[in-house]
């Protein structure tokens, strides 16, 4: 019988999943998604290959689980950081900066964007979880409109446009003046796009 990780079967399953996600992330950064197998992932995670199938039927399901986990963790952390901010404009600034510093879950691997290797059904499931982050932005903008910080606007149009702008950004990877300037310009662009007041630089 395989050794149980943690104090219970539930904890064992969770720890195994996290090991698989960590191994997948590391291997993708080295070889790309198409260059690894479930056997590679199992070996890197230190679990038996058959144990992988107890959690995920195939490599796509594992990738989907990883993306879902990363998105949920990110959304929870983002919301927690916003809970201490009352001003919708400052919340929006924090949202933009969080998105700018986000580890690019879909671009951690060499080769094609990860979403492009998923089936249509899996892409839809990813889209549903990404919607969790969009709801955070929607709440920020709705609060800003209600307080008068932002003008009235159609959030069904604004929210996807703002997120498309942020997900399509091309910021310098290395921290420094160039990256900080690019993040600041992105922040200003988004604030102007939603009609928020932007201080005029001297």
UniProtKB/TrEMBL annotation:
<dbReference type="GO" id="GO:0000976">
    <property type="term" value="F:transcription cis-regulatory region binding"/>
</dbReference>
<protein>
    <submittedName>
        <fullName>TetR/AcrR family transcriptional regulator</fullName>
    </submittedName>
</protein>
<keyword id="KW-0238">DNA-binding</keyword>
<dbReference type="InterPro" id="IPR023772">
    <property type="entry name" value="DNA-bd_HTH_TetR-type_CS"/>
</dbReference>
<dbReference type="InterPro" id="IPR001647">
    <property type="entry name" value="HTH_TetR"/>
</dbReference>
<dbReference type="InterPro" id="IPR050109">
    <property type="entry name" value="HTH-type_TetR-like_transc_reg"/>
</dbReference>
<dbReference type="GO" id="GO:0003700">
    <property type="term" value="F:DNA-binding transcription factor activity"/>
</dbReference>
<dbReference type="Pfam" id="PF00440">
    <property type="entry name" value="TetR_N"/>
</dbReference>
<dbReference type="Pfam" id="PF17935">
    <property type="entry name" value="TetR_C_27"/>
</dbReference>
<feature type="domain" description="HTH tetR-type">
    <location>
        <begin position="14"/>
        <end position="74"/>
    </location>
</feature>
<keyword id="KW-0805">Transcription regulation</keyword>
<dbReference type="InterPro" id="IPR036271">
    <property type="entry name" value="Tet_transcr_reg_TetR-rel_C_sf"/>
</dbReference>
<dbReference type="InterPro" id="IPR009057">
    <property type="entry name" value="Homeodomain-like_sf"/>
</dbReference>
<dbReference type="InterPro" id="IPR041478">
    <property type="entry name" value="TetR_C_27"/>
</dbReference>
<keyword id="KW-0804">Transcription</keyword>
<feature type="DNA-binding region" description="H-T-H motif">
    <location>
        <begin position="37"/>
        <end position="56"/>
    </location>
</feature>
